[in-house]
User: What shape does this take?
Amino acid sequence: MDPNASHIIEVVDQKKSTKQRLDALDGQSTRLCVAVEAIEKKVETAEAEIRELNIQLEESRMMCAAMTDDVALLPDLREEMEAMRLQLQILQRAVGNGQAPAQEYAPRLKIPELRTYGGARDAKEVENFLFDMEQYFLATNIEEGARRVTTATMYLGGDAKLWWRTKYANIQANRVQIDTWDLLKEAIRTQFFPENVEYQARRALRELKHTGSIRDYVKTFSGHMLDIRDMSEKDKLFTFMEGLKPWARTELQRQKMADVSTAMGAAECFMDYQSEPRKKRLQVNSQSRGRGNRSFKPTSNTNGGERYSHHKGGHQGGYQGNHQGSY
Assistant: This one.
């Protein structure tokens, strides 16, 4: 065979083979493009689904937040349900006894906002804060110890708040235990009560004398008593009586006072003759004689002390009006 013809045949065969390969590549390229388009569509679909899932996730978060708020309201709802249950029991008992309830519903108590305690080292400030908190617990029906501690510490401010933050850190580290209202009261008193306040109050009571009006004496005595927590009733009455002027002390002893509260109430009704104008005292004495009473008042004697004068006509009275049987 002619070499040229053989070469031409070989070239033609190679050309056919190359064309077949190109056709095969075109087919593969077409299939690849179709696959890529399908993948792109799937990616777009996946992105849309992800966006939808994100929206659903955000809605779920909002629902969880709303549920959290609802859960926070559960204690109040329980208290209201308990009040309704008690009211229902009262109504049922009233119906069972054939009686109508005295009132349908009691008005809801409006509790005033409490003042915060800022850490003032003043015995009266501390005791007033503790007393107000106890009244608040009664009004809001808070009985559980831990809730009382949490509620009370929310009303601490200033230095008291800083002190409680330190205490709270120790509580979290199990170094200190303050989980009842009594323990918290003890801790607050220990931290913020002035030093020797009770000693100073006892000393002031020992030196207190009735030199001005009886009302001023009673007011000062009551203020000092607030700083003393363990004085017996007999000691209170004795200390109060010893500070009075002799004529007032004698009159209270005659009435046989049983406790200091009754004695202070009776003493405040006495007429302070030394502090009242002479003209007014004469008018009161004249009115007492006109009613058939005789007045009770101290007069000076030659020894510098006091003696007691009783006008004719009725029972003794060292204060305004008829006091017999008032106490």
